Amino acid sequence: MSTWTLVIDTATGINIGLAHDGVGVDARTDTDSRRHVERLQPMIAGLLAAHAITASDLGSIGVGVGPGPFTGLRIGIVTARTLGLVAGVAVRGFVTLDAIALTARAAGRVNGGEFAVITDARRRELYWATYTAEGVRTSGPKVSAPGHIPDLPVIGPGIEAFPEVFAHRAVLDARHHLDAALIAARLGELVDEGLEPQYLRSPDAEIPRTRKSTLAPGRLRLPEGALG
User: Fold this and answer.
1) Could you read off the pLDDT of 166-201 as tens digits, one per residue?
2) Which fold has domain 97-166?
3) For the chain, which end, N or C, has fewer CB atoms within 10 Å of the first or last residue's CB respectively?
4) Are strands 115-122 and 154-155 parallel, antiparallel or unpaired?
C-alpha cells in the first residue's frame, strides 16, 4: 500500500511538502510570515490537488512546532491536527530548527563539525540551537541576541536578518531554509516533539477571548475538494 506524507511548517513563513513512499515529490513556500491565515489552506489544497490526492489519502502528517511566532505556529498546528482527524492518522511534531539542520546535512554541507541553526525571532533576536556534525541537537532551542549565539558555523534564515554579524561564519552553499519535501520523506528521522508550540517567549499580542473560527480546532475550513 502506498503512503503519502504531508509536512507543514509555519515557523518561518509557510513551508509545505509532500512525499510518496519515502521519496520527496513536491514542496511549496511562501516567505510572507504575516499571511498564514489567507495562504496556508489554499497552498495545501493546491499541493494535494496537483498530485490527485485528498487529505483522506495521507498516511502520515508532520508539523513544525517552532520555535516561531505565536500566530503562525498556532495556525500550522491546528491545520495539521484537523487534517490528521480527516485522514485518521496521528500527527508528528518536530522542531523547525532540527528540520533545517537535516536539510543542510542532506545537502552534504555541514559534515565537518558542530554547527548552529538560527532563525529570525524579530525584536533584534534569534531562535537557535546547536548540533553535532551528525545532526544531534546539543543545546536549544533558545532565543537571544545575536551576540549570544555560540561561536560556530551557522546556517538558517536568521543569517539574512544579521548578515553583518554572521557573514564570516555562515556555511557557504548550505540550504538555509528547510526543504519540506525532503522532511516529508525523512520525517521519521526527526525527534517527535509532540504538538505543543514552542514560542519561547510571550506572544506580541493578547490572545482574543473568542477564537476565530478559522483557528478553532475542529472548525477549520479547507477549500472544497481538499478532503475527498
Assistant:
1) 989 999 877 789 999 999 999 999 999 999 999 997
2) Nucleotidyltransferase; domain 5 (3.30.420)
3) N
4) parallel
